[in-house]
Amino acid sequence: AQSVTQPDIHITVSEGASLELRCNYSYGATPYLFWYVQSPGQGLQLLLKYFSGDTLVQGIKGFEAEFKRSQSSFNLRKPSVHWSDAAEYFCAVGEFGNEKLTFGTGTRLTIIP
Amino acid sequence: GAVVSQHPSWVICKSGTSVKIECRSLDFQATTMFWYRQFPKQSLMLMATSNEGSKATYEQGVEKDKFLINHASLTLSTLTVTSAHPEDSSFYICSSWETSTDTQYFGPGTRLTVL
Description:
The complex is a heterodimer. By secondary structure, chain A is mainly beta. Chain A has strands at 3-5, 10-14, 19-21, 24-26, 32-38, 44-50, 56-58, 64-68, 73-78, 87-95, 98-103, 107-112. Chain A has one domain (3-112): Sandwich (Immunoglobulin-like). Helix content of chain A is 0%, strand content 56%. Chain B is mainly beta.
């Protein structure tokens, strides 16, 4: 069975600083990997996804993520965070031919001035 | 990206009543939709997979007689919480799978409060 681990429950970053959110997955074949962001009381917005090809994926809002098969990781990065990036971030894994996603427990990002 | 809407965005009901939540894919057709439940500060828990024209598939532990799902068309799925109780209070989120991009798009969620 596939699973996703987000080791960091809560991260606090200063505005303008760089950010890295960790995501590790467990899956037998090549996974489909996603990062979603959820603002308070809102649904999830897709930031980026990885299916195949270039392991460095660019997303919206200046985010990127790198797929590392050897480490079973798909970490999310942003070089300089903005106050509006404060939200909950979820990593998810799916499989080809199966539309069901498995979500991690999420990382809450707080931005301080 | 594709848009998924939910209605209502929030609802308060009395214990014992039923509540219906609608999920619509606005600019694409979705043969498959998903219903999730999210408790405060927790992740999304998949409740069921809704398939157009057929019965929904429920995850283990989800009462199918309590959470009725109907996927009557390629753009609409409904979740009815029957005989709601306070423990059913939660944030319910639907999503639709957009096949051309192999991406799941989420609705804004419905906050249900049962008094």
